[in-house]
Design goal:
Helices cover 35% and strands 22% of the residues. By secondary structure, it is of the alpha/beta class.
């Protein structure tokens, strides 16, 4: 399936590439976004100066820009707690009392503290020449809520999808809570599509029981509701801008494996497209049927499913036996 719908749609993506804003950009573009690289522009924010320098050095300036700044809910100078494992660095202090119950707590040791400039995404984006955002990914170790609070204009006017790390256990002091993040996004017209869960087992019993421990955090995927997306389109200044936003939304839905939602949005706004382009898009959206849906029901199918599930449980991948979680977010394996 072509995420960009063939030759006739190309001019829309060339005039306005799909824009991903990556807040907490450590590690660069995530693997699930690489299939969209052909017409993708990445705007990354990374507060760690060392990691920012690496990202900026390796980036293709035509496709990505990385900014050494933190996003927040107001202009501020914040303290970045840089930890032994850079991926656990946070604007919040690690909650050592809770973390000490699990293996490898030394990953959260704070090795230095650095002052970092911060501002609202609603300010940082136009300041850096970004006037339209299609998707926001946030992975900031507990600082997600104030970042979203500083992006309410962008969320309302531009964004179709959000992937955000959400916390279910107190990993950091004063961290964002899942319920608060979920409420803010729902209040801005988003609906939850998926959670990629992460589980930790306590050090005292890491080798015992099943593969799952306590649910500690997850990556949450949200898309605009049908009604909120229609309102977003209606606020745009002309039909050409609406076509671009619709195409971008369809691409994002397909990127995460939700052809059903892409088809629903396409049918609701098909009148925006000329007949030839609509035919191209319809053909791509309906070109693939998952093998599991093509496989007919047969006697013993349920028994086989249970057998393979038990094998899956035995072979379930973990990190050193104590940490486990979902492989991918969305509907693609």
């Amino acid at each position: 399936m072509d995420l960009y719908f063939g030759v006739r749609a190309q001019r829309y993506y060339e005039q306005a590439p799909l824009t991903l804003v990556d807040v907490g950009a450590r590690g660069g573009l995530q693997p699930n976004w690489k299939p969209a690289a052909r017409h993708l522009r990445v705007v990354g924010f990374e507060p760690d100066a060392v990691e920012h320098a690496r990202l900026a050095r390796d980036a293709d300036p035509q496709r990505a820009v990385y900014i050494n700044a933190a996003a927040w809910n107001a202009p501020a100078t914040l303290t970045l707690n840089v930890t032994r494992d850079g991926g656990t660095s946070s604007l919040h202090q690690p909650n050592v009392e809770f973390l000490g119950r699990f293996p490898r707590v030394e990953r959260f040791d704070v090795v230095k503290r650095v002052g970092i400039a911060a501002d609202r995404l609603d300010t940082l984006l136009p300041r850096n020449g970004v006037t339209d955002t299609d998707f926001i990914k946030i992975d900031t170790q507990g600082a997600e809520l104030p970042i979203l609070q500083g992006a309410t204009g962008t969320l309302a006017d531009d964004v179709f999808g959000v992937e955000v790390e959400v916390q279910f256990a107190p990993l950091y002091v004063g961290q964002s809570a899942y319920g608060d993040v979920d409420t803010l996004l729902r209040d801005h017209g988003f609906q939850l599509f998926d959670l990629r869960h992460s589980y930790w087992k306590r050090a005292a019993g890491a080798r015992f029981g099943g593969p799952k421990g306590q649910l500690v955090f997850a990556d949450a995927l949200y898309f605009k509701t049908e009604e909120a997306f229609a309102q977003q389109l209606a606020r745009l200044e002309d039909d050409d801008a609406r076509r671009v936003k619709l195409l971008h939304a369809l691409t994002i839905a397909l990127l995460y494996g939700y052809a059903d939602y892409a088809i629903e949005l396409f049918e609701a706004h098909r009148a925006l497209l000329d007949a030839a382009l609509a035919a191209d898009i319809h053909r791509e959206l309906t070109s693939e049927i998952d093998f599991a849906l093509r496989l007919p029901h047969f006697r013993g199918r349920g028994w086989l499913s249970q057998l393979f599930y038990r094998v899956h449980r035995v072979l379930y991948p973990t990190f050193e036996g104590w940490a486990s979680g979902g492989r991918r977010i969305g509907n693609i394996e």
